[in-house]
Amino acid sequence: MNQYGRIAEQHWREHRPQSVAGLADPEEFFTELGVDVQLEVQARWSGERVAVPPASLRESYLERVGRLQQSRLEVEGEVLRELVLLPAEDDEDLGDDPFLSPEEAAEEQWREFHLLELIGGRSRAADFTAEERQRLRAGAVPRLLQLAGLSDEVLRAEGLL
Known about the structure:
By secondary structure, the chain is an all-alpha fold.
């Protein structure tokens, strides 16, 4: 298990114990999640590294190293927040968010619950109607859709898209 898998396991055991208890093989799940996070960080960071801003062409070696390191840390933080550092199971923050209407908060809670069920293997994309699959896919990052079995490729292969 890599560093991201260990971070995920520690976070989930502390904040999402019911989700961990529902996993058939937690070791395998966190190992795979760690690899997925690592690949996503590499993919995003590579894309940012290639897109070199014109002003950076005049930077010194140390400035470039610092900029790239900062960029990697930012990408790593984004990916961890999206795939690993999910809210605690008893977190009521969505309901308290002043920017979300009660309907939007309920929708976000519904999406989070069902995406976790899909990722944990406790449900399948075929268990949902086409409209519900669209609701689950709305706003999700591509890697999360792959983990949940809701990517275009998976849905096409199952005849659901």
